[in-house]
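## retry 2 of 3
previous attempt timed out at serialization; input unchanged, resubmitting
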Amino acid sequence: MESDDNYDYLWQVWQKEKQSNELQLLPNDFYDKTLKQFNMINNDDIIQKTTKENILKLLYNIYERRKQKLIVYVAYNRQINQNMPKIEIDFHKKLLNFTLSEKLDIDKNIKDKKLLVIQEIPKIILPSGNEIGPVKKDEYIDINNDNDKVFLITNNICKDI
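## retry succeeded, writing output
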C-alpha cells in the first residue's frame, strides 16, 4: 500500500511540474527518499512490478523537466531556491560554471584575433559609433571594440581567424 501512496505523490509532483514554468518546491531528500521507497517494493507481484516501473518513469520525467527548467533559469540569469534537492543544485552549479567558462573563452577569442572580411563592406557605422569601410572581401581588419566584433561576426560580415 505504501507504493500506491508514493506513486500518487509522484503523480501530483509531476502534474505540478508539467503545468508550471517555475521550479516547484521539493524536499532536499526527495530523490533519495523516493529511490529508497522504490527499492523496497517487491518485484514478485506483477502489480507491484508495474507500479515500480511507473514510479521510475515518473521520477525520470520529473527530473528531466526540472533540468530543463534549470537550463532556462541559467539562460535568463534567474536565481534558484537553495532549498531544493542537492542533485539539482549541483546540476545548476555545473551549468553556471560551463556558461561562465564558455563566455570567457568566446570573449578571449574575440579580443585576441583579427577579423577576416567575408563580404565587401561599404562605409558603415558600428554599434559603438565608430565608422569602418570601405573594405574589400578577404582583407583583415582590427576592431578594438568587443561589441563591434560580435556585431560583425554574428551578421556574417566578418569571421574571426
